[in-house]
Design a protein that fits this description.
Blueprint: H1 3-20, H2 26-37, H3 45-72, H4 88-108, H5 113-132, H6 140-157, H7 166-185, H8 191-212
Helix pairs in contact: 1-7, 2-3, 2-5, 2-6, 3-4, 4-5, 5-6, 5-8, 6-7, 6-8, 7-8
Length: about 210
C-alpha cells in the first residue's frame, strides 16, 4: 500500500468517525448507555426503547430538521455548520431541545435526577460553546464525546452501573482520542480547539451530574 492509499484510508476513517460521532447523536448515545449499562437496565425493554426514541427525536431529529430549514433559507452554509459566525442560532436552539429532553426525563418519565442531569449538563455544554463561539471556535464533536465520557465516568464512580464499567470507560477515552485525531486530520480544528471542546463537555456534564444529580 503506497503513501497515497494510506492517506486516503486515514482521511476516509476520519470522515467516518466524524459522521458516526456527530454531536447531535451524542445525547442519544448517552441515553442508550444509561438505559443499557446502568441500574436502569432492569426496566422493561419496551419502556427503555420508547424513552430512547423520544430522546432521539427531541435531541437529534428536531435539531436536524431545524438545521435543514436554516440551510434552505441560506442561514447556514451546511448541516455541519462549520462557519463559526453561523453557529449561534443552531446552538441556542439545540440548548432548548436538550432542556426539553431533560424536562421530559424528569417530569415525563420520572427518571432519576442524575439521569436528567446528564441532559441538563449537555444543554449547559452547548450553551457554554455558544458563548465561547462568539470569539473562538471550539470542537463541538469533542464537547459531545467529552460529555459521554463524563457520563460513563459518573455512572462508574457513583456506583450506578449494572456491571464493572472500567473497560467501557477506557474504551470511550480511546474513541475520544481517535475522534480528536480525526478532527485534526480533516483540518476542522487546531489542537487547542479539540482539547477545549473535550474539556468543556466533560466538565459540564461531570459537574452537573456530580453536584446536582
Amino acid at each position: 500500500m503506497n503513501r497515497y492509499s494510506v492517506n486516503k484510508f486515514i482521511a476516509g476513517l476520519a470522515r467516518f468517525l466524524s459522521t458516526a460521532l456527530t454531536p447531535l447523536l451524542m445525547p442519544t448515545y448517552g441515553v442508550f448507555l444509561v438505559l443499557w449499562v446502568s441500574v436502569l437496565c432492569l426496566l422493561p425493554y419496551g419502556s427503555r426503547v420508547a424513552v430512547l426514541l423520544v430522546c432521539m427525536g427531541i435531541t437529534c431529529i428536531v435539531p436536524l430538521i431545524f438545521l435543514s430549514v436554516l440551510r434552505h433559507f441560506n442561514l447556514v452554509k451546511d448541516l455541519h455548520v462549520e462557519i463559526r459566525q453561523q453557529r449561534l442560532i443552531p446552538y441556542l436552539f439545540t440548548t432548548f431541545c436538550y432542556a426539553v429532553a431533560a424536562y421530559y426525563l424528569y417530569y415525563g418519565c420520572h427518571a432519576p435526577q442524575w439521569f436528567a442531569m446528564f441532559m441538563v449538563g449537555s444543554a449547559i455544554t452547548v450553551l457554554v460553546m455558544a458563548i465561547i463561539n462568539l470569539w473562538w471556535k471550539i470542537s463541538a464533536h469533542m464537547a459531545g464525546i467529552g460529555g459521554v465520557v463524563a457520563l460513563i465516568y459518573q455512572i462508574h464512580v457513583q456506583g450506578l452501573s449494572a456491571f464493572d464499567l472500567l473497560w467501557l470507560l477506557c474504551l470511550s477515552i480511546i474513541v475520544a482520542g481517535m475522534l480528536g485525531s480525526a478532527r485534526l486530520v480533516l483540518k476542522r480544528h487546531g489542537l487547542w480547539q479539540v482539547l477545549a471542546g473535550a474539556a468543556v463537555g466533560f466538565l459540564c456534564v461531570s459537574l452537573t451530574m456530580r453536584f446536582l444529580g
